[in-house]
């Protein structure tokens, strides 16, 4: 469905309709294909499928109809030609790197990324001879100075985790392409409902489908979106051989999540904006990080390249870890968990959870203080959320 003329449909329509190919049964909802392999009509057909001379399903490690529907739908929503679905967001990053990089290559990455991504670059890609240089996300002179002749990828999250720093995607894409490199953007915080990096010049978009694409914290998955040449070539080839594969069931869950993505993201943005303004006025809050605030350094840039400020905010308390933990432990409604993008509001202390494997120096360079808390604003009533956060504020003040 929608093989041609995707530009004629709005994102909300693509989120509900794109990619579905009904079987002979005429089902309305997308079916799940929980099978490891597929049967061929003949030895000749099997050979033709394996050689690539004939399209069709072979083995669910790299061809599954439910997974393919999710891939086609997300690609359409991001404005990409091809999507490869993976077992997790981190496996999406690993698949991209292993598919596109070789020994001797170089990556320039923002420092303002998920802590585990930093660990992947520093502790594991180095084992294969790939070096990474880290730069300040919004200092474009640092990006330019870090590029070498062997630089192959520029990598960032925008907005970043957890300080919501916003980078100029078009500017970094131009810089990457002028130096023969590709720009990879982790779009987890915004999703295609709020931002489409490919249309701003990025070459690859990464997703942790675990987050907003699911929206209810049910399954783990990831995705890589881009051109047929790049994603359909070496990225897919690595997935076919190594097998960091999304399951059919998880793909079906994510398909259901995509159907309501735009509606949910509007609600997340509305509540997060109200809470950010409210927190900014509290005396025990040192600073609030949220692109929707006029106090945010990249407020104008966020407004120009995003269709909403997102559902994630961070705030820094006066004090350190003791005060941050006291705040968390005083709440009763919000969930104390490191996941984000859920219908349920979640809170975490980045310095001891998502970025806990970083050194003190790395945390300092990334702006992760002991008093910093990250809030993923869910779909509860915003008054109830304010009342719960007020318990945390009272515990810190008292």
From TrEMBL:
Domain of life: Bacteria
Pathway: Amino-acid biosynthesis; L-methionine biosynthesis via de novo pathway; L-homocysteine from O-succinyl-L-homoserine: step 1/1
Keyword Transferase: yes
Reaction(s) catalysed by this chain's protein: O-succinyl-L-homoserine + hydrogen sulfide = L-homocysteine + succinate
A cellular component term, taken from the record's GO annotations: cytoplasm
List of residues that carry N6-(pyridoxal phosphate)lysine: 211
Protein's UniProt keywords contain Transferase: yes
Assigned keywords, A-Z: Amino-acid biosynthesis, Methionine biosynthesis, Pyridoxal phosphate, Transferase
Family assignment from sequence similarity: Belongs to the trans-sulfuration enzymes family. MetZ subfamily.
Quaternary structure annotation from Swiss-Prot or TrEMBL: Homotetramer.
HAMAP family, sorted: MetZ
Name this polypeptide is given: O-succinylhomoserine sulfhydrylase
Source organism (scientific name): Solemya pervernicosa gill symbiont
Gene that produces this protein: metZ
